[in-house]
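Q: What structure does this chain adopt?
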Amino acid sequence: MNNAISQFNNTFQPEEQDSTSRVALLVEYCGKDFHGSQFQPNLPTVQSELQSALSKLGLTTSAVSFAGRTDAGVNAYGQVAHFDLPAGALRNIPNLAAALNARLLNTVSIRDFQLNAHPNFHSRREAQCKWYRYRIYNNRQRSALMGNDCAHYPQFLDVERMNQAAQHLLGSHFFTSFKDSSSPETNDLCTIWHIQAQQDGDFINFDVAANRFLYKMVRNIAGQLLLIGNTENSLSPESILQVLAGRDRTKAASPARPEGLSLMAVVYPSPFNYFESDSRVRQLTQLLKSTQMESPHNENLFRKAS
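A:
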């Protein structure tokens, strides 16, 4: 771990360079082996794994930045990252994705990359919308083939009740009740453009797309929906309105377990839409168009994520 810390601390600062090149990455990872995406001393993280692989290629880079921070155990199919390195440093590396994947753990994969990205591209600040999915395996018995991207809940869940409750969260609201109590964020206003709970055999997919997310917001909402969907409880779908209006984290349900959560896709405006050919990015883009969030009447809603 000391080597990882050294590699992180020895990254160059791009503002000190006369000539640098910005690189964008589309990253997939399984969160079970990591203590989140962001660097933490003496702990395995996605960032430290990427920095280590870049170092093994002999590359001196700025710190890798992500579109969104994910917690320990949380997965990503469409995380976006960027970093800077001296111009021309990749002249002997024709395929950066292949070179990195040969040096990364099997639980991390570079799915696509963009060399010489726009110098103003920033994976977090330029993001317009992010899509998260919380996936539930809803069966009395565990599954031997469940995989690493879902959480097992043996109690019977009424998906219709969950979806009815979710629809109350559409639009712009103060999501203080669904923000982790340790979060220093003071702006709790977020705009949800799409939210749905849908049955898929023994699985339930809870999807939410928004301009920004507060710390643990999706897991906290999922926890509330699980409470409402549990037929052993008597909570109505409308009860979520009282929780939302109360702006009190202590009145909301406990967060859903992290292993069910995945960052599915991030959408960027032109000229930063480097990964628009990715199937999940296309799916999110079409979803936004279908909800008419890009129309002139709603242009104030289509704001950048934070």
